[in-house]
Amino acid sequence: MKKILLLNGNPKTKSLCHAITTSYEQAASTQHQVRRMDLSEMHFEINLMYGYEASQPLEPCLKQFQENLLWAQHIVIVSPIWWLALPAKLKGLIDRALLPGFAFKYSEAGTEIEKLLPHKTARVILTSDTPQTYLQEVAAGLMAQLEHGTLGFCGIEPTQHTLFGPAHLATPEVIDNWLSEVTSLAVRGE
């Protein structure tokens, strides 16, 4: 049994990401402990206004997200790809919550990084409207950023990914197949 943090990273309340997150949650809950957070229900300033030069108080949902990250053994992020990147609000969540002293810290000399979220794994489930011929290429840059520049930087590794698209052309049968794949991953805690 794993402790799984499940994040629906789509800022919209109704979406394919919402359906994927719900399918994952329902299946995973039969075998694992699951805490779900929906970005659409989180209210916080997305701009890290002072960088790391001054502290910015965390809103309650950001504190809860940090608590859930510490609790979790496995993190699942479900997100659309918008303009080759994460939605701005999801990027804002990362900027605001994965702070020095919580997710990582620099050595006194500033030349080394200590990863403060070790012994955790992750899966990123991405949806995109990008045509199939470009889909892997589009996702590659985003996955490199998340796997190495964000999650891995904090000690969350390995990161696996699942890619569904083009979403805007998906028939109900295709979506059912995607949800079945998600259900299988969830039962295994992947």
TrEMBL record:
GO terms for cellular component: cytosol. InterPro entries: Flavodoxin_fold, Flavoprotein-like_sf, NAD(P)H_dehydrogenase_qn. It is an enzyme of class 1 (oxidoreductase). Its EC number is 1.-.-.-, 1.6.99.-. Keywords: Oxidoreductase. It comes from the Bacteria. Pfam families: Flavodoxin_2 (PF02525). Residues 2-168 form the Flavodoxin-like fold domain. GO terms for molecular function: NAD(P)H dehydrogenase (quinone) activity. PANTHER family: NAD P H OXIDOREDUCTASE-RELATED (PTHR10204), NAD(P)H DEHYDROGENASE [QUINONE] 1 ISOFORM 1 (PTHR10204:SF34). Belongs to the NAD(P)H dehydrogenase (quinone) family. This is NAD(P)H-dependent oxidoreductase. It comes from Pseudoalteromonas maricaloris.
